[in-house]
């Protein structure tokens, strides 16, 4: 089976979030199942060296954003189809916004061009390859299923995966005529959304199957609380909606071999975590003699992640014997709150504003627990890293967090199946209660280590998820 994946990010080449990790891992996970997956994404500046050594396989003079060509190249074990359109993608800044932080004003043309190029390749195929399935990811690829629905033209089947429904790709209606869209489809039953065009809604309406990144999130987005205005569209298509959990690369994230750790360890020998904790203390100025649990945060600092509630709970965490290490960046007021907490609680709270991949590994390796108090979380990856490293997740009961963490209640502790702590109230009271539970459990070395070993035994790789994707592709082909 041949699958064309259309995405705006792909690790390790370009990444702003979990979408990139999925796009980078899925081809390798599906290959043993007989699926030849090729990944189409824009040729951003970081990818231009790959364009230079690739082979042109298609060329278009009339994409919505102007001319572009597709270059195929092998890199990092992936077959990439790079849309080389310098006027759209070869520019300084991020993939969606410029250095001032504002979205590029031509994002509608940029990502419509990606979607249209993918559809045209799907119709015509390449010299030695033609997709059976086109798998679009998030709003940036949302028009791909629309372009595939050309009357009278045979086309591959399509799937769209929602990684975060909060980002919908909404643009002014008049832009539609530039994008080559059928104007009779600009209706509430089509891609019209409150008078605008929604790229994500377009994908949800016209794709043959809709998928998201956890079973719980698939249920949540059918409700007004989580559906972000698209719950009606999804409810109408509930029969083709599914949720498949993300996995992680268990070779990259392996405490037994991770080169970023001060000392490696595994579930049979957890003593190595102490050396990693000592290194964290050195880097962040924390008290190395502290006896209570070290909690960490590795996250974008946003209210979606519930970190405003955590910031308010820091005095309680410290007063009850905890330490806190923070790695992340985001909302200026939250960055300031964590900096202030570090100043107010020297030796107990430390923060690194920014991001450092190696340090994120060290935090997983040396912390006792990782805090993820998200108000919504489609899947989440940091809790999976925490499980892998025996760093117990303390998480809100939502989305993929609820699907991957087993609460440390009395029954689960007795059965030795508990892997973390779940809570429902993402507010100061809920966060402090969860912290108290974790701190009390930490006081029992036997219970804590039992939970660590149970966590480290969980399957967090891609094997099960890859089989689920393969089954999804087979189902959509058989319809």
Automatic annotation (TrEMBL):
Signal peptide: none annotated. Pathway: Glycan biosynthesis; glycogen biosynthesis. Residues 2-235 form the Starch synthase catalytic domain. One of its GO terms (molecular function) is alpha-1,4-glucan glucosyltransferase (ADP-glucose donor) activity. Keywords: Glycogen biosynthesis, Glycosyltransferase, Transferase. CDD domains: GT5_Glycogen_synthase_DULL1-like. Its EC number is 2.4.1.21. It catalyses: [(1->4)-alpha-D-glucosyl](n) + ADP-alpha-D-glucose = [(1->4)-alpha-D-glucosyl](n+1) + ADP + H(+). GO terms for biological process: glycogen biosynthetic process. Belongs to the glycosyltransferase 1 family. Bacterial/plant glycogen synthase subfamily. This is Glycogen synthase. The lineage of its organism: Bacteria, Pseudomonadati, Pseudomonadota, Alphaproteobacteria, Rhodobacterales.
């Amino acid at each position: 089976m041949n699958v064309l994946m259309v995405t705006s990010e792909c690790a390790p080449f370009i990444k702003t979030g979990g979408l990139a990790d999925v796009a980078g891992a899925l081809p390798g996970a599906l290959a043993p199942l007989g699926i030849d997956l090729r990944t189409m994404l824009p040729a951003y500046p970081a990818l231009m060296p790959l364009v230079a050594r690739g082979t042109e396989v298609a060329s278009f003079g009339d994409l919505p954003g102007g001319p572009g060509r597709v270059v195929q190249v092998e890199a990092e074990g992936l077959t990439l189809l790079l849309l080389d359109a310098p006027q759209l993608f070869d520019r300084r800044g991020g993939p969606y916004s410029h250095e001032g932080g504002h979205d590029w004003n031509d994002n509608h043309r940029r990502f419509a061009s990606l979607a249209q190029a993918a559809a045209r390749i799907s119709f015509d195929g390449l010299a030695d390859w033609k997709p059976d399935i086109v798998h679009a990811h998030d709003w940036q690829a949302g028009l791909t299923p629309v372009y595939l629905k050309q009357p009278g033209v045979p086309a591959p089947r399509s799937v769209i995966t929602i990684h975060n429904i909060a980002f919908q790709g909404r643009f002014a209606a008049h832009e539609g005529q530039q994008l080559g869209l059928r104007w009779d489809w600009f209706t509430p039953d089509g891609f019209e959304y409150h008078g605008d065009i929604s790229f994500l809604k377009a994908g949800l309406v016209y794709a043959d199957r809709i998928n998201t990144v956890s079973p719980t999130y698939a249920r949540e987005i059918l409700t007004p609380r989580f559906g972000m205005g698209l719950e009606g569209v999804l409810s109408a298509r509930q029969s083709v909606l599914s949720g498949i959990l993300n996995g992680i690369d268990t070779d990259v994230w392996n405490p037994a071999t991770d080169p970023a750790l001060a000392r490696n360890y595994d579930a049979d020998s957890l003593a190595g975590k102490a050396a990693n904790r000592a290194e964290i203390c050195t880097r962040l100025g924390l008290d190395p003699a502290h006896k209570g649990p070290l909690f960490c945060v590795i996250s974008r600092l946003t209210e979606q992640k519930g970190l405003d509630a955590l910031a308010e709970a820091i005095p309680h965490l410290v007063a009850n014997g905890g330490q806190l290490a923070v790695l992340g960046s985001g909302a200026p007021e939250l960055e300031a709150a964590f900096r202030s907490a570090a100043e107010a609680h020297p030796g107990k709270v430390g923060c690194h504003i920014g991001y450092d991949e190696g340090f994120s590994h060290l935090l997983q390796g040396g912390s006792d627990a990782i805090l993820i108090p998200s108000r919504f979380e489609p899947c989440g990856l940091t809790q999976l890293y925490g499980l892998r490293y025996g760093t117990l997740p303390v998480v809100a009961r939502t989305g993929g967090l609820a699907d991957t963490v087993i609460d440390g209640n009395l029954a689960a502790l007795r059965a030795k199946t508990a892997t973390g702590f779940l809570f429902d109230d993402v507010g100061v009271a809920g966060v402090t209660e969860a912290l108290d539970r974790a701190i009390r459990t930490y006081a029992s070395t036997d219970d804590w280590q039992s939970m660590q070993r149970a966590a480290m035994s969980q399957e967090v790789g891609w094997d099960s998820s890859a089989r689920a994707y393969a089954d999804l592709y087979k189902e959509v082909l058989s319809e």
